[in-house]
Design a protein that fits this description.
The complex is a heterodimer of chains A (334) and B (660).
Chain A: H1 3-16, H2 23-34, H3 39-46, H4 52-83, H5 105-119, E1 123-125, E2 130-132, H6 133-136, E3 161-163, H7 169-177, E4 182-191, E5 202-213, H8 217-232, E6 238-245, E7 248-257, E8 274-283, H9 285-290, E9 297-305, H10 306-314, H11 321-324, H12 327-330
Chain B: E1 2-4, H1 5-11, H2 17-26, E2 31-34, E3 37-40, H3 52-56, H4 62-66, E4 72-74, E5 79-82, E6 90-97, H5 107-115, H6 124-136, E7 140-144, E8 151-156, E9 161-164, E10 170-173, E11 178-181, E12 186-189, E13 193-194, E14 207-213, H7 216-225, H8 231-237, H9 245-260, E15 263-265, E16 268-271, E17 280-285, H10 286-293, H11 299-309, E18 312-315, E19 319-324, H12 334-345, H13 367-377, E20 381-382, E21 388-389, H14 391-397, E22 404-405, E23 416-417, H15 422-434, E24 441-451, E25 455-466, H16 467-474, H17 481-496, E26 502-505, E27 512-522, E28 525-533, H18 535-540, E29 547-553, E30 574-583, H19 588-597, E31 603-613, E32 618-627, H20 636-654, E33 657-658
Helix pairs in contact in B: 5-6, 6-9, 7-8, 11-12, 13-17
Classes of the chains: A alpha+beta (334), B alpha+beta (660).
């Protein structure tokens, strides 16, 4: 290529600068002339084989053009940016994209409860939902004529197999397989043959137990009072009263002051001022003995209904709503 | 149990209702006020407390009992013979004459009987008898005096004999059965049911009222043997406290006089010594009690609580001997006694001490949580559906599977345990659509059940979303929706099964669309599937939207693989696009595998950029190939060589046309 032609091309390029009207056009010019494979670099390659004097002369000219182009482009770019008109843009339009879903409120409650006990060093154990009469009743000291064993109250698969009625079956499974000291939490679905405003045939329980040497009621009280303060708030008033469960002796129940009327008595708390929250007690020695634990070990256990505690906390009045899975309900707790 | 507040106040020391409730609760009887009554729950182990006197316990106003007094108008000429003292060691009786049966049972008796699910007959004699039992806990039996001779024997029969009961049933009694007879006939199966020959009728004016103790074990056996359960037999089976046996007759005769104007005889009593009434001796160790409670108790307080319990006790050096009354079957060991002790000591006085022990290292991993968060962030809602489902629908979805049937379901629509969570999800979608909710995406993590030798439980993550949900929220075209779900599956598998090889294979489930379906394999093990639900199933559930479904078995794999750092190249990446035209039936995966198997060591990555169908059963694919070396920048010649090699191989293998 003749050197004059190079200079003509550069002049042409210089003249065309004034016709560039947008940032995109400036960029196109830059790529064409100033990029690695652009016109300017190609010219430098072409003048490689000239004599040193010519190389110097033309090299200077090309560099001058190069510098001019760079400065011009920079200046023009700044001008364009400065003068760029703001197109009207309505930023208040609604966003695009999926709304966040939610974890089911029951599982949220379980997670919250789990977090507390995990901090106390509890291990979590998965539950078995279909179990035998032995694990669900016999090994837990529940008498043969106890009404809960009847087909009116419990779902049976066959004579020996049933859908568990509480999470306490896991106590026995764990005690058969693990040695003390133990701090275990188990949760999951349990089944009872009942269906009305306050009962569903399937619901969730959380159960925990501790087995060690010289475990006392004072330990149980400390753990559960702290738990209730954590779950319902520090100012929650608590009442402990004696009760009866076949698998604990002594047995107790813990109530909290009604969160609706604050103890002033209302229909929610059946005009007592208190709401029953959980049952607990020292594990009956017969159960520990049946699991071949030495007499130096004792323990306590506690359990609560997840739906119940969730309903109390969030003022939900119909248990069945948890299993309707209406998206309007699920959305309230995301 | 339910009693009028005023009735309770009358019988107790305490006049303040709140104090009464507090006392009941402290004794383990959950109670609350229901209008003008107190509703009291009796725990299962306190079945023999199902009467007012025992519930009141220490609150029972014994002075008030003394105000009931019966004037004897005539003497009681009936002889009692106790011939089987092991069965009946104590027997009381009273004669009441000139009962006016025209009197209607007053409301206070009627209401208390009905509130406590007891029979109200509107026969004043029977109602007074039942009411007295409700108050005192002592079952009474009334005989028509007209048909009774003057001797009453409690004995065991020597031959088989027949009786006709109050409700006209004929029962053949076996040799050795204890009975009550007068000089001629058997008049009752004691503690269980009376006989027809001495039953109370509308014409009865004079009665003999019996109050006795019968051995609870024998009553229980008789009840089972002859298959008769009455309110009396239930009370006697749980053992009766004889403390109020005599008073029950005094109180009932008082009511008869008050309400019917009757007259009473003296009370005759016959008793023999019996081991049945022996107290049960318990040794209580103070130190053990303190350990169980978790704090030291001063001797003074300890003894104060013992006294309040009301049992006879003797203090020895290191322990205390306690006499547990025979009727307190709920206290049969040291722990159950300590339960009673704590009721007096009060739970609020127990201190709070934290546990000293620590559990084993707790590495509970919240893998499930990472899946939950992932799905929630993509707009899915977690749901919980019932474990039991309709077998009719379940058979349609899983026709070849062996379902687990419930022996006693609540309804035919909930008669099997779910084989998968699909039915629950479809019903949830349907219910939400009916409520006008749209853009639905749900998931559930829960157990499913299958029948093999035993029932097996498996934990599954299952989800469903409408096509509309994907189109609206993610802006994909309809044909890309399936691959959106595939992306969800791949990410979940990477979260739950990290560093495991994930593969997909076509499947053919009853609920899946013929083309849009894949099984999921982890290390060649089938762990789940996903698909577009076919129209047949959608029609069956009356759902008029396309739905995508996935399920993954959350099986734990051994995580023995360690993750090591792979060096990152500092040299330039080269991106080149390869456009091919080839037969439509050639799967993308086969091209992907083929290129990787060429083992080009500078091949960093490849992915599909574009795909579209052409005429003549062909498709056009554009694949982006990324090359990068760890040791140098690749030269133009090297790059050219690799691509030429790649093109030739693909051309030959797939008979493809390479576009310029």
């Amino acid at each position: 290529m003749e050197l004059n032609k190079i200079l003509n091309l550069l002049n042409f390029a210089k003249n065309s600068l004034t016709t560039l009207n947008s940032l995109q056009e400036l960029e196109s010019f830059r790529i064409e002339y100033l990029s690695r494979n652009g016109v300017i670099n190609n010219f430098f390659k072409k003048i490689k084989n000239l004599s040193p004097e010519d190389k110097k002369k033309f090299g200077n000219i090309i560099n001058e053009y190069k510098d001019f182009f760079i400065n011009f482009l920079d200046k023009k770019k700044n001008e364009f940016l400065k003068n760029e008109k703001e197109n009207f843009f309505d930023a208040t339009l609604p966003d695009i994209g999926p709304q966040i879903g939610s974890i089911h409120l029951i599982n949220k409650t379980i997670n919250k409860i789990e977090n507390f006990f995990l901090n106390f060093g509890f291990d979590v154990v998965k539950g078995i939902e279909v179990d035998t009469i032995f694990y669900n009743f016999d090994s837990l000291n529940i008498q043969q004529d106890h009404p809960s064993r009847s087909e009116n109250d419990t779902f049976y698969i066959d004579e020996n197999t049933l859908l568990r009625t509480h999470t306490s079956n896991m106590q026995i499974h764990v005690l058969e397989n693990l040695k003390p000291p133990l701090k275990i939490l188990s949760h999951g679905k349990v089944y009872r043959r009942d269906y009305d405003l306050t009962h569903t045939p399937m619901f969730h329980q959380i159960e925990g137990f501790v087995i060690d040497k010289e475990v006392s009621l004072a330990n149980l009280k400390h753990l559960l009072i702290n738990f209730l303060s954590y779950f319902f708030g520090n100012k929650t008033k608590i009442r402990i009263r004696p009760s009866y469960f076949p698998f604990t002796e002594p047995s107790l129940e813990i109530d909290i002051e009604c969160i609706k009327c604050f103890g002033k008595k209302c229909s929610v708390c059946k005009f007592s001022g208190w709401i029953e929250i959980l049952g607990c007690g020292m594990i009956n020695k017969k159960i520990l003995k049946n699991c071949n634990l030495k007499s130096k070990f004792n323990g306590f256990a506690f359990g609560l209904g997840v739906e119940r505690i969730t309903m109390i906390k969030h003022s939900i009045d119909d248990l069945r709503i948890f299993f309707d899975n209406n998206i309007e309900f699920l959305n309230q707790f995301n | 149990m339910k009693f009028d507040i005023e009735l309770i106040k009358k019988w107790s020391y305490e006049s303040n209702t709140n104090n009464i409730i507090k006392y009941f609760i402290s004794m383990g009887f959950e109670s609350f006020i229901d209008k003008k009554k107190i509703d009291i729950s009796i725990p299962y182990d306190k079945k023999n407390f199902s009467n007012l006197f025992h519930i009141l316990g220490n609150f029972l106003n014994l002075h008030y009992l003394k105000t009931f007094y019966v004037k004897n108008n005539f003497s009681n000429n009936i002889n009692i013979e106790l011939k089987c003292p092991d069965f009946c060691p104590i027997f009381y009786g009273i004669i009441i004459k000139n009962i006016n049966q025209n009197i209607k049972t007053p409301n206070f008796i009627k209401q208390n009987l009905l509130d406590n699910n007891l029979t109200f007959t509107n026969n004043i004699i029977i109602d007074i008898v039942n009411y007295t039992t409700l108050i005192t806990g002592q079952p009474l039996h009334a005989y028509d005096l007209k048909n009774l001779n003057s001797i009453i024997k409690i004995e065991k029969i020597n031959n088989n004999e027949k009786i006709i009961t109050l409700n006209s049933n004929v029962i053949n009694l076996n040799f050795g059965t204890p009975i009550i007879r007068d000089s001629k006939n058997i008049i009752s199966l004691p503690g269980i049911i009376g006989c027809h020959n001495t039953m109370i009728t509308e014409k009865t004016k004079d009665i003999f009222l019996e109050s006795a103790f019968f051995n609870n074990k024998i009553i229980n056996n008789l009840s089972l043997k002859y298959n008769i359960k009455t309110s009396s037999s239930l009370i006697f089976s749980n053992i009766v406290d004889t403390k109020f046996s005599k008073f029950s007759l005094i109180y009932s005769s008082f009511l008869f006089k008050l309400l019917t104007g009757s007259e009473s005889s003296n009370i005759i009593e016959k008793s023999v010594n019996s081991k049945i009434f022996n107290d049960f001796l318990l040794i209580i160790n103070k130190e053990k009690t303190e350990k169980l409670i978790g704090s030291k108790i001063c001797n003074h307080l300890f003894l104060k609580c013992f006294k309040k319990i009301g049992f006879f006790f003797k203090i020895c050096k290191k322990y205390i001997k306690v006499n547990i009354p025979f009727y307190r079957t709920d206290i049969n060991n040291e722990d159950s006694f300590i339960s009673e002790f704590i009721k007096i000591y009060e739970y609020k006085n127990i201190p709070c001490h934290s546990l000293k022990s620590f559990s084993l290292l707790n590495f509970y991993e919240h893998k499930s949580n990472s899946i939950l968060n992932f799905l929630v962030n993509h707009g899915f809602y977690e749901i919980i559906t019932y474990t039991f489902v309709d077998s009719k629908f379940e058979k349609i979805l899983h026709p070849k599977e062996c379902l687990v049937y419930i022996k006693n379901p609540m309804s035919e629509k909930m008669n099997v345990l779910r084989f998968s969570i699909l039915q629950g999800l479809l019903k949830t979608i349907k219910n939400n659509l009916n409520r006008g909710n749209e853009n639905l995406a749900f998931f559930e993590i829960g157990n499913v059940f299958l029948k093999q030798e035993h029932v097996i439980e498996k934990n599954f993550l299952t989800g469903v979303c409408s096509e509309q949900f994907i189109l609206t929220n993610f802006g994909f075209k309809k044909e890309k929706c399936f691959f959106f779900i595939k992306n969800i599956i791949k990410n979940i598998c990477n979260l739950f099964f990290p560093k495991k090889e994930i593969n997909f294979l076509k499947n053919n489930y009853k609920y899946s669309n013929k083309n849009l379906n894949l099984s999921i394999l982890i290390n060649d093990l089938l762990i789940g599937d996903f698909c577009l639900i076919n129209n047949e199933v959608l029609n069956f559930f009356d759902i008029k939207q396309n739905l995508y479904f996935f399920q993954i078995h959350l099986k734990e794999f051994d995580s023995d693989e360690k993750i090591f750092y792979k060096k990152i190249s500092k040299y330039q990446k080269i991106k080149r696009d390869l456009s091919l035209i080839l037969e439509n039936e050639i799967l993308y995966k086969s091209i992907d595998n083929f290129i990787k198997e060429l083992k080009i060591n500078v091949l960093k990555n490849l992915f599909l950029l574009d795909i579209y169908l052409l005429n003549n059963n062909k498709k056009s694919l554009t694949i982006r190939i990324i090359l990068q070396s760890l040791i140098k920048t690749l030269s133009d010649d090297e790059i050219k060589f690799i691509f030429t090699f790649l093109k030739e191989k693909i051309k030959t293998r797939f008979n493809a046309i390479i576009k310029n």
